[in-house]
């Protein structure tokens, strides 16, 4: 089984076309899940980003 790519927060925010503050809000509210990569680095699975984008499109949300 192949593992999904992991994006750093900055990369994820860029892909979502939002700022880091907005991304942190989504993480805090449990909308997007972050994973601990090292003691000081966190990442977000590409599959979680894709799922969020799909959900926003189906709701007619702005990206």
Low-pLDDT stretches: none
Proportion of beta-strand residues: 5-15%
Number of strands: 3
Average predicted local confidence, pLDDT: 91
Our measurement of the CA-to-CA distance between the termini, rounded to an integer number of angstroms, reads 31 Å
> Overall 3D geometry?
globular
Sketch the topology as an H/E string, one letter per element.
EHHEEH
Please state the structural category: alpha+beta
Describe the main β-sheet briefly: 3 strands, antiparallel
Number of helices: 3
**How many domains make up the 3D coordinates?**
1
Q: Determine Rg (CA atoms, Å).
A: 12 Å
How much helix is in the residues?
A: 40-55%
Major sheet strand order: 1-3-2
Helices and strands in order, then pairings?
Blueprint: E1 6-8, H1 9-16, H2 20-28, E2 35-36, E3 42-45, H3 46-59
Antiparallel strand pairs: 1-3, 2-3
Task: Explain how this protein is built.
It is a single chain. The chain is of the alpha+beta class. It has one domain (6-59). The chain is 49% helix and 14% strand. The protein contains 3 helices and 3 strands; from the N terminus they run βααββα. A 3-stranded antiparallel beta sheet has the order 1-3-2. β2 (35-36) and β3 form a beta hairpin. The longest helix has 14 residues, at 46-59. It starts with 5 loop residues before the first strand and ends with a helix. The relative contact order is 0.21.
């Amino acid at each position: 089984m192949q593992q999904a790519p992991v994006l750093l927060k900055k990369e994820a925010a860029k892909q979502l076309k939002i700022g880091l503050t907005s991304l942190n809000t989504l993480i805090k509210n449990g909308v997007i899940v972050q994973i601990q990569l090292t003691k000081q680095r966190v990442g977000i699975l590409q599959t979680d980003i894709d799922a969020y984008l799909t959900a926003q499109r189906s709701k007619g949300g702005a990206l």
